[in-house]
Design goal:
- The chain is α/β, with parallel strands linked by helices.
- It is built from 1 helix and 9 strands.
- The N and C termini lie far apart (36 Å).
């Protein structure tokens, strides 16, 4: 019986790991592309810096296109050309972020990641 439970657990964990995907969000003409992304819990988002400017991926407060840092949110620190930042999102949520370098956010460098189903109302954020 213990062997069966262990085997089922290992298979379930392997299936969950194999199903997870990695998505790239690029900076194109000073903006994130794609600006909105739909992923599933367990998926990873990677922000490669492939242009000549520095960038920092910083989580912002609720509300698309916000430039206000979220207290306790993630912050990649400055990434130079050739560097990347990535995060895995384990549960359903809505994550807003910006480019935290200089005036990039004010100039439109913001994005939103929908982990799991999108909320039915814009102000609704799953927990």
């Amino acid at each position: 019986m213990l062997f069966y439970i262990t085997t089922v657990t290992i298979i379930a964990l392997a299936a969950a790991t194999m199903a997870a995907k990695t998505y790239d969000v690029n900076v194109v003409n000073g903006l994130f592309s794609p600006q909105e992304l739909d992923i599933q819990p367990g998926d990873t988002v990677r922000w490669p810096n492939n242009d000549g400017a520095n960038h920092a991926i910083v989580e912002t407060v609720a509300g698309a296109r916000s430039c206000n840092n979220k207290a306790g949110g993630f912050n990649s620190g400055t990434k130079t050309k050739g560097q990347a930042y990535q995060r895995t999102f384990p549960k359903n949520t809505v994550v807003n972020y910006k480019d935290g370098v200089g005036a990039n956010c004010i100039n439109g460098a913001t994005g939103t990641i929908y982990v799991g189903p999108r909320p039915t109302r814009p102000s609704e954020t799953p927990t």
